[in-house]
Give the backbone structure.
Amino acid sequence: MAPTVLITGCSTGIGRAAAERFQTAGWNVAATMRDPRKAGSLAELDRVAVLPLDVLDEVSIEAAYLAATTRFGGIDVLVNNAGSGLFGPFEEANAAAVRDQIDTNLLGPIWTIRRILPHFRARRAGLVINVTSLAAFLGPPFNSYYAATKWGLEGLTEALAAELASFGIRFKLVEPGLTRSSFHIKFAAQDTSPITDYDGFRQKVTEAILPGGTTPHGAPPEGVAEVLFQAATDPSPRLRYPAGADAAAILAMRDSMSAEDFVAAMRKQFPT
């Protein structure tokens, strides 16, 4: 019987590319997204079930889980990919934007994992892959809240990998670098006037990371999808899978020097 993967955030970018990669390899795919009308040609593929799922809504998570297990008989791998970004100075973000960032990027994966664990425990097998980011080991300026959620997801993954190993449940992290996609990025100063003290630094960082307010450069999402597939099919206990040359290089740099030297090196990349 073909294995089954449930992937969140499949309407665009990494999630969509991952759904296509697993389907091409013969897997059953529960491709979930907030609005299934955005599925397009994904809905026409064999062995793909496009399902509505909002990671902020536990009722929606339950419905998607039941639909996937009814259609395919079970789930072997959960890929937590859905997420969003919040860009701008730390003190400019309003409370609603901060809560949404934490809810989407950290609590969302928590709720999906909590729902699938009884299924995995009963089978004494299962794999959860959490998609984090280069920001999980590099705290870039103007990405403080996003970095906090991704660092949090890394800590959660490490803890659960130890906590659930005796049940045959494994956890892995895929850590993409900058990726070409339509990844949804919110800007901190949406309902307030920007703080002018940050203007010069803001311009430098925005031009370096988000020219035009998007992420047009970086690795293609198909490259990250390939790393996701490698992680899903790797039986080893390996935990981390950097995706992209930039992620691999910066992770190696961080491991090769002291925390102080690493922070100093990163400041040179984003001079104030």
